[in-house]
Structure formats: C-alpha cells, structure tokens
Write a structure and sequence with these properties.
Blueprint lengths: L11 H21 L30 H12 L3 H13 L7 H13 L3 H13 L7 H13 L3 H13 L7 H13 L3 H13 L7 H13 L5 H11 L7 H14 L5 H10 L6
GO cellular component, one term: endoplasmic reticulum membrane
Family: Belongs to the sel-1 family.
GO biological process, one term: ERAD pathway
C-alpha cells in the first residue's frame, strides 16, 4: 500500500522510511542472536569457528556417521577432528561441548590443519571456553593466514581496525581485508567496502564500495543488502533509485527469519506490483 499503489498513489518515501526502521530493528535482533551467517546456513567469522564451508547435512548427522567420525578423530584424522570440533562447539548432531571442541581443534592444528588454527584464534578472540586472549588469537590467525585461510585474513583485519590486541593500524586492516576479499570471504568483502565507503585506510571510493557490498551480498553477508539499500536510497556511489533500495530492503527481510510486527509492516509496504 505504500509502494506500488494498491488503489493509492505510490509513496516511496514512506516505504523507504519503514524499510530503514524495520531493517534497523531486525539487524539488532540478528546480531543479538548471533544469527549473522548466510541465510539459513552457518557461515564463517560470525559463526567463524567452523571450517571454510563445511556444513553437515541431515544424513551426516545420522548415528553411524557420528560414530565413524568419532572413531576417525580418535585415530587422529585431521579432517575428522576439525569436523567433530565444529559439531561439538555448536552442538550439531552431538552434545554441545566447547571444551571438547577446543581440544579437537588443538589436535588438528598440531597436525597443521589451517582451519583449526583459525578456529582456535576465534575462540581466543571471543573468550569461548578459554580466557579472552588477543595475543593468542592473533598468533592463531597469523598461522591460518599463512595458509591463506580467508577468514583469518579478515580476523587480522578486524583486530588491526579495532586495535584489539594490536596497535590500531587502518593500513594493515585494509591490506588484510583485501587478501580476504580476494578469496571472496563475505566479511572481508563487506569490511573492505566499508573502508572504501568511509575513506579509512585508503582513498574514499564510493563506487568501489558499492561493488564490494554487492559481492559481499552475493556471498551471504548479513548486512550488505542494507548497505546497498542505503546507497541506492541516498545516491551514494550509485544513481539514486528508490525501487532498487526497496528491493534490497525486501531481500534482507526475506533472508532473515524472525518476523516481528515491524518487519511484517515493512513487507506489506514493500510488496509492490509494478515498479513505480
């Protein structure tokens, strides 16, 4: 009823206002619940203790598969240790046990498994099972980054950006995000886009920022669609286009679960027929 008519003149400004409000509310919910992975799938760095893309499906959660995985892990299989560590950390198919997950990652990392090194870094960064330790997080991220784990590049970039455990260094953050973005890590793409957007660690380039936000959105970053909606709404780095802005708000709502009354109102407002 706000956009697309439905018997009334289209009101894109009102629809955009509702979209902005609803998006802000939903972002707060998503971040509070740490539901910031790819739509309907866990993803790295927000749920970054997992490896680079492994997600057990229903068949792999069957008892016989779990028993096989546990047996292989007990025999020292690096892949099984990494997979089982992730399962134990998030409680997927097995009882959640961060301590056991940490031990699995340690054993896998000792055999040179880069994803496990990253997972250990993330646990130290967030204080999961262990005391928060930025120095240890940085050391694990550096080891994983040396093996070109894209999420590790992003982790180092985030530490340099915020100054957690290291002196703040926006140039180092930009370089680390660039390495992660080259491998299409969604967090690194989004963070690099933000640096271009704000002119941090590099010269401001709004068109480049929009391009990176689009790539981040394609690879599942939870906030990229909102950033694109705002860019199209304001004409930042791209020609202003209310219809495109509304579509990106709609995409964000559809990608995320947990429909509140505000989100439902926004959905109705954005549920257009023909573009105005």
């Amino acid at each position: 009823f706000m956009h697309g008519g439905r018997g009334l003149p289209p009101q894109p400004a009102a629809a955009l206002a509702i979209g902005r409000l609803a998006a802000a509310l939903l972002v707060a919910t998503v971040e509070a619940e740490e539901d910031t992975g790819e739509p309907f799938l866990p993803e790295d760095m927000r749920e970054a203790w997992m490896d680079q893309g492994y997600l057990p499906d229903d068949e792999e959660n069957e008892d016989y598969m779990l028993e096989l995985e546990e047996d292989l892990a007990a025999r020292g299989s690096v892949d099984a240790l990494q997979r089982l560590g992730y399962r134990r950390l998030v409680g997927q198919g097995v009882e959640q046990d961060a301590g056991a997950a940490y031990r699995d990652f340690l054993a896998a990392a000792a055999q040179g498994e880069p994803a496990a090194m990253f997972n250990l870094g993330y646990m130290h960064l967030k204080g999961i099972h262990v005391e928060q330790n930025f120095a240890a997080a940085k050391a694990h991220f550096e080891a994983a980054a040396a093996a070109d784990v894209s999420a590790a590049h992003n982790g180092l970039g985030a530490m340099h950006w915020t100054g957690e455990g290291v002196p703040q260094n926006l140039t180092a953050a930009f370089e680390a995000f660039s390495r992660g973005a080259a491998a299409n890590n969604s967090d690194a793409l989004f963070n690099l886009g933000t640096m271009y957007h704000m002119g941090l660690g590099t010269q401001q380039d709004l068109e480049k920022a929009v391009d990176l936000f689009k790539r981040a959105d394609e690879h599942g970053h939870y906030k990229a669609a909102i950033s694109l909606a705002l860019c199209y709404e304001s004409g930042v780095g791209v020609q202003a286009n209310a219809t495109a802005a509304l579509e990106y708000y709609r995409k964000f709502f559809l990608d995320r679960a947990g429909w509140t009354s505000e989100i439902s109102a926004a959905s109705h407002a954005l549920d257009a027929g023909d573009a105005w």
